[in-house]
Give the backbone structure.
Amino acid sequence: MLQITTTAQSGLLILSLDGELALETVDQFTMAMLNTRGADRIILDCQRLLFVDSTGVNAMLQAALAWRRDKVHVLIENLSAELNEMLDILGFFEVLAQ
Amino acid sequence: MPRSVRMYAWSLGFAGISLLLLYLPNLPMEGLLSVLGLAICAIIFERFTLVLPNRVGFSLASIFVFIAYADFSVAAAFTVQAAEAITSAWNVKSVVKKAFNFGQLLLSVFMFHLSAAAIATAFPLFGWRLELALLLSGLVYFATNIGLVSAVIQLASQRPLRTILPDLLSDGYVGVLGALGLFIPLRYLFSMGGWLSLILFCLCLLSFRYAVNLYLRQKQSHLDSISQLSALIERKTGAAESHAARVAQIARSVAELRKLPPEEVDTIYAAAILHDIGETQVEPRVVSVMARGAIPTLADEEAYRQHPLLGEQLVSRMTGMGPIAKLIRHHHEAWDGSGYPEGLKGPEIPMGARILAAAEALEAESFTLEAKLEAIPRLTGTVIDPALAISLEQSVHKMERGAITTESIVQDANMTMLQSELLQAARNSRLLEQMGVGRILSFERGRFTNFIGSAVVPPAAEQMAGLAAQCIRSQLPVRNHLVHQGIAYDVYCIPAGDEVASLLFFDISHALEVEREQLRRIFRAYREIMAAGTRGKLLLIDDEERSRLLTAGETRCEISLRAISDGPAARIAVGNVARSCGFTQSELFQLTVCASEAATNVFKHAGTGSLSIQVTDHYLRILVSDQGDGIPYDILPQAVLMEGYSTKRSLGKGFTVMLRFLDRIQLHTSAAGTLIVLEKQLPAQTVPTALPTGASG
């Protein structure tokens, strides 16, 4: 299950992810990302994100790449050690650094 | 069927119908029953053709047409002929053939009538003159018949008429003479004695027919038994399969070309079938040496040279086989006297034995037509009687039409490199080499015969008969695989007539084994590649190992993966079991991720599957299986080892993650589905505790 809470304040959008980002919730995540048009900066708060697999990481990566194309500044915060390792193994940071 | 043939047949058909409609109204009502009776007789004798002991058969149906003409009217003759023509072609599926048959017979009657009318106009017909006129008209009837049939053969085959007519005449002259010869006495019987005499005479003819058929069936049964005995001998002595049958075919063909009496032809044929029976009494080692073409010792050669005498002794013990035994005795004599066992020379050798010796010598040459034709002049005068040379050449040409060998693939000097390579690949192919030699059989009226007409019983006879019957019914080629006594056959049936099917079947057991071995090799190669590419972490397993895995260890949990909404339940179950096994939080996360990756693969590639968790002495195992199409071997290395490779829209890094987090992965995949076993070594000194039964499938 995944709950996405959106907080907007003057061009900044904070998306708090609560739950698991996997095959059964990626569509929900993708829909939520489509609703972030217009923001200049986005913060993905992963404090309550308990689980993500490669499908979830792929969804996050696609969203990040789309934001970068739209010249939106993105920050991912409060990643747990396990999530950080997952993103690292799957080359998330490497792709975004290119 | 060429258009010209169809048009010709339809033209004749319409002409026949026109003639019938022209004359039928003139059929008088009185005598109608007699005419119908003659029609029934014609139909019966068309169905039950008369066969002579020399196997020449002919139909007497035309006699009743002539009687109807002579004693009633031309309309009666047309009626009888039409009835016979319709019933004789009743089972013929082709409408064109029916039309041709109908038309050509009625036109023949018309010509008979014209001829009789012309003779009657020219000469007063009474007494013997009337009979003579009828006989001459009968000749015109048959001449018309032969002419119309020749024309359709010429149209269909484009052969010149001068080659067609002699064949038809030689096949049909007995029937013409028989019909005309029986017509006069039968007509007299009918005229003088009425229906009773006619019926009695017909019954005599049918009894004669029955007796001859019985005799011929007994004779054929006798020859079939000899053929089966020959096949047993070949298996015992290790001789090439069908060697005796091929020698017999050549010998029979030569004997028939030399117009020998049918009895003598059959004797020569039987002797050819059994000519090597004496080898069963010779030491197998000696027979093997001679068969291989190795150089025998003098003692071995002397022992082998006894086999014609031994064969004669064996065969002469059977009743009625004296003449056959004599030919077997002399089948290794040579025209120039250099043969054995008696060294007979020239005309001292019985004709049958000379034919047998020539056939045997020729069959020992290569399979190719060229080699055989080259051998005939070389052996003539030494082994072969010079008088037989031409007949031997003609026989070899006839046999060649059925022969298929690798040597007969002609090497064209202009063959491209690709064609040469293909040919070479065919010759080097182990798979093709393992294909068992095909056999060609005919199936007619519930009986199988080989290419020389001998009855045979093929393997899986009942099933083959079923296939052949289906082929005949549908008049379409049929193919199937059959298994009989542990041997697999690839069987092709092709319709060869209204009631005949040709069968070609191969023993494919060895080829299948070669294919299975190739698949095993491919599996072993991929297994080693995968293990090398993952430093032993990924192991491809076979069916046996899969079965062992499924029953090893204690199953803690089973989850059905019916929909993607089952994913969370699977992760919870894995987490619970892993926690009870003492894994750290980080390891729990890793195991959960791996289970999720495996489950995701199931949902994306197979739709549904299942997940179970086992705990063994050393491992926690997560088994995820599905019944999808499997991972084809040719993309397996990319799918598993190549980061970013995916056949679906995804990151393509599922296996990357699993290989990183786990100690070992075992993978079984086939067209029936995939099983992936994710293994993590249990923490040291862990005593797994039992869980409350939470999620279950």
In short: The CA atoms of residues 538 and 665 of chain B lie 5 Å apart. The mean pLDDT of chain B is 83. The first helix of chain B runs from residue 3 to 23.
